[in-house]
Amino acid sequence: MSDQNPYDAAQAAAAKLAELTGVERHDIALVLGSGWLPAVDALGEATAEIDTTDLPGFSAAAVVGHSGKIRSIRCAVSGGSDRNLLVFLSRTHFYEGKGVAAVVHPIRTAAAAGCSTIVLTNGCGGLKQGWQPGQPVLISDHINLTGTSPIVGANFVDLTDLYSPRLRALCQEIDPSLDEGVYVQFPGPHYETPAEVRMAGVMGGHLVGMSTTLEAIAAREAGMEILGISLVTNLAAGLSGEPLDHSEVLEAGKAAASRMGGLLSQVVARV
Ligand code: 8IG
Fold this sequence. Notes:
Distance between the termini: 32 Å
Strand order of the largest sheet: 5-8-7-6-9
Mean pLDDT: 92
CATH topology: Rossmann fold
Helix content: 25-40%
Low-confidence stretches: none
Bound molecules: 8-iodo-guanine
């Protein structure tokens, strides 16, 4: 990213987004993580789709199964006014080494574009007994093991109730079988050792992944209401007896697509 301050950079990206999509303001942002791409069509027809690299400050997608696109979707709400969804079909991960400002630039762009709610999704490893690959879990809280923050300077942002209790309750109204868990972000890109997975469990974690926490912090700083949903795509390392493989992530996503799509579309209609 340039030497422009990150909030001005986000304003510039939001202005370009409005110009390219023809949508002046967006209401709800969604970031789709590993395994979530097959769910996107359930949200409705695209008003516009652009490449992330068409906007200032964004870089190309780096992971198979993530596409470097941003989709604007107009979502009809029965009995209410339509919502403009801003869907990021990929994210920049901390492990890409582009810096924390690059990781949270989409979040700040969404805030600058008008979004007051953000849905952060990811694919991750699950620790809790009984959880199965393909199962969605609401993020109740997080542990950030990246050792860093998207915020620079003496800005002491409160992270109590970071993951909105209101939005979690709404999800559980839609699907009472949804469980909750604490998400632990490791730096990656390697998966955990079995000993690190045990450590995450001792710390109070239930989900292990490589995204989301820095984005949630930036979203809170920007004043957005945050919903975090993990798709457990694999049992965390050492729990299944099998090695981890990125292809199982994509498989779990395909298998869970209609459940995830249904959940997301009901949530955005009721936020
Ligand atoms: I998908 O088991 C996915 N992403 N750290 N551990 C970590 N990240 C992940 C995992 C996992 N599965």
